[in-house]
């Protein structure tokens, strides 16, 4: 079966571009006014969002919930990374780890809902560390502070092609 395009429940152009590169198909982003639940469990967040979007659109689609967990903060911010990044910025996030372990784990929890409404779960993880300060202009979000294991560069210093070799979405 050939897939012409997929609906991705996001308005983030960076995520859409990455998904297209990784999946090799046209990805159409969509955004609805849906209240996102707050939970330390990214699976609960992704499933609730997937169900809400499918109920509204009645079309196959996928959603994701991304977490960034810092060992030095006992797993936080985890699924709250987006809100913390908005509040503190990448410099502030890096500063939180001063004098603490910089080990980190990036995780994406992806839910694909097929035409029948059946949910399919995928989880991707990339181990790494947090830079002492932001580096690079590429990517989006916390890319300038995340260094994947085995690399010296942050995601923000990498081309999209290089980043996708390490990405938790790949």
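Q: What amino acid sequence fits the structure above?
A:
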């Amino acid at each position: 079966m050939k897939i012409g395009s997929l609906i991705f429940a996001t308005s983030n152009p960076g995520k859409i571009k990455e998904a297209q590169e990784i999946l090799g198909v046209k990805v159409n982003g969509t955004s609805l006014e849906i209240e996102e639940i707050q939970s330390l469990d990214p699976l609960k967040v992704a499933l609730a969002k997937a169900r809400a979007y499918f109920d509204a659109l009645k079309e196959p689609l996928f959603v994701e919930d991304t977490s960034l967990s810092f060992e030095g903060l006992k797993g936080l911010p985890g699924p709250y990374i987006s809100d913390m990044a908005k509040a503190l910025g990448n410099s502030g996030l890096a500063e939180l780890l001063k004098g603490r372990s910089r080990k980190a784990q990036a995780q994406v929890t992806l839910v694909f809902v097929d035409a029948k409404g059946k949910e399919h779960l995928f989880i991707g993880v990339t181990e790494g560390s947090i830079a002492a300060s932001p580096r690079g202009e590429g990517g989006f979000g916390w890319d300038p502070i995340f260094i994947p294991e085995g690399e010296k560069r942050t995601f923000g210093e990498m081309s999209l092609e290089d980043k996708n070799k390490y990405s938790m979405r790949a």
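Q: And what stands out in the fold?
A: Helices lie at 13-23, 42-57, 81-96, 160-166.
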